[in-house]
Specification:
Layout: H1 2-16, E1 25-26, E2 32-39, E3 42-48, E4 51-56, E5 66-72, E6 76-77, H2 81-87, E7 100-112, E8 115-124, E9 127-140, E10 143-153, E11 173-183
Antiparallel strand pairs: 1-11, 2-3, 2-11, 3-6, 4-5, 5-7, 7-8, 8-9, 9-10, 10-11
Helix pairs in contact: 1-2
């Protein structure tokens, strides 16, 4: 159960990596932020049900791009009601006191055709960390899909207090994977 909480944390970070351009909109029904952690050697998978993005992204003027994400941490889902309720508690996400995790970009750098590094600040609970999220953009008739994955360390954000700080029980590493569909965005 606690491992699932850590996975949720990773998902929050993943959401932070998403970028779209001005006057573009996230299509939530076709977007996903998922996370995986390891509890006593077993992978545990989860995803966030509610997140929002405010994006201004211009591939021709990356210096003007701004990406902001807000994730409802209480929306973390592992498919098990008991676990979903546990991750909202103070030892994990402390959802009553700090209901949202946020990401705010500070720079976007092109790393290849359709590939970018989004540099920004991720805030979970009371901790803020600098992160770099690699993103790949793919254009289709439905819009632009932004995909990527990256790792975070849950203890950097105070996720898993008390006995749950023991990384032999729940790994410190959380892998975040995302697929976000944005309308009105042109990838080059």
């Amino acid at each position: 159960m606690k491992s699932h909480l850590f996975s949720l944390f990773g998902t929050i970070l993943l959401a932070s990596a998403f970028q779209v351009s001005a006057q573009q909109g996230l299509i939530p029904a076709q977007s996903e932020i998922a996370f995986t952690s390891t509890q006593m050697g077993v992978p545990v998978h989860g995803k966030f049900q509610r997140f929002n993005a405010q994006v201004a992204f211009d591939t021709k003027r990356l210096e003007t791009s701004k990406i902001a994400f807000t994730i409802d941490v209480a929306s973390a889902s592992f498919g098990v009601a008991e676990l979903d309720a546990e991750v909202a508690k103070p030892a994990w996400f402390d959802a009553k006191r700090v209901p949202q995790a946020t990401f705010q970009s500070v720079a976007v750098k092109e790393t290849g055709r359709g590939k970018f590094d989004v540099v920004g600040k991720l805030k979970i609970k009371d901790s803020v960390r600098d992160i770099v999220v690699p993103v790949t953009l793919l254009q289709s008739t439905a819009g632009t899909t932004a995909t990527g994955d990256f790792g975070i360390r849950r203890l950097d954000f105070g996720i898993g207090d008390g006995d749950w700080k023991d990384t032999a029980l729940v790994s410190n590493e959380v892998q975040v994977k995302f697929k976000l569909l944005v309308s009105g965005m042109a990838a080059r």
